[in-house]
Amino acid sequence: MNNEEFKIYLHSLLPEAVFVETGEFLEIQIASDKLFPFLENIKISENTSFDYLFCLTCIDRIDKFEMVYHLLSKTHKHILVVKSIISDYQNPETETVCNLWKTAEFHEREVFDLFGIKFKNHPDLRRIFLDDNWNGYPLRKNYIDPNMIEL
Q1: Which CATH class is domain 3-91?
Q2: How many CB atoms sit inside 10 A of residue 120's CB?
Q3: What is the C-alpha to C-alpha distance for residues 26 and 19, in angstroms, rounded to an integer?
Q4: What is the CA radius of gyration of the chain?
Q5: What's the pLDDT tens digit per position in 83-92?
Q6: What distance in Å separates the CA atoms of residue 126 and residue 111, rounded to the nearest whole number?
Q7: Contact yes or no for 121/95 (Cβ under 8 A)
Q8: Residue 42: which of 75, 65, 67, 20 has the closest Cα?
Q9: pTM, rounded to two decimals
Q10: In terms of DSSP bridges, do strands 26-30 and 78-86 run parallel, antiparallel, or are they unpaired?
């Protein structure tokens, strides 16, 4: 399946998805409530077989968060970037994907530790780099540390 056929197939799975073709990889933006079912589908489907999550991160957009998942199908040699918006900036949460890809367990803990995103149903959601008594989330744009040097 070439890239255009791949897009058509993904669009058939989720018609409201938006494709962005500005980067190196095919990128799809989907609503956060559709995220887990979509990811589960593209992992188990023989047409996609996304068997490897090689990156999971978060972007602080000041008033919302953007979750970013980089997926690889070793079978079909496709790479897909899935982005989803979390609009609740004060209490951000999304469903874990640990039960789909074991690598997500570490990545989600990192995002929790540095951005404060809560992953529902995560098996061990706790800080991974910072002390348990650390106050705040250092990768948020509104984070202030008295030791920071302002430019």
Answers
A1: alpha beta
A2: 10
A3: 7
A4: 16
A5: 999 999 999 9
A6: 10
A7: yes
A8: 75
A9: 0.93
A10: parallel
Residue ranges of the alpha helices (H) in the chain? 3-13, 32-44, 104-115
Q: Could you give phi then psi for residue 145, rounded to 5 degrees?
A: -120, 130
Nearest-angstrom CA–CA distance, 2 and 24: 15
Six-digit token string for 95: 């469903």
Q: What's the pLDDT tens digit per position in 59-107? A: 999 999 999 999 999 999 999 999 999 999 999 999 999 999 999 999 9
Q: How many helices (H) and strands (E) does the chain have?
A: 3, 7
Q: Which residue has the tokens 């999304």?
A: 94
Query: Which amino acid, residue 72?
Result: L
Cα distance between residue 10 and residue 120, in whole Å: 26
In degrees and rounded to multiples of 5, residue 125 shows phi and psi of -80, 105
C-alpha span between 74 and 45 (Å, rounded): 13
Place of tokens 């079978």: 75
CA atoms within 13 A of residue 91's CA, in its CB half-sphere: 1
Cα distances (Å, whole numbers) of residue 28 to 71, 84, 145 = 11, 9, 35
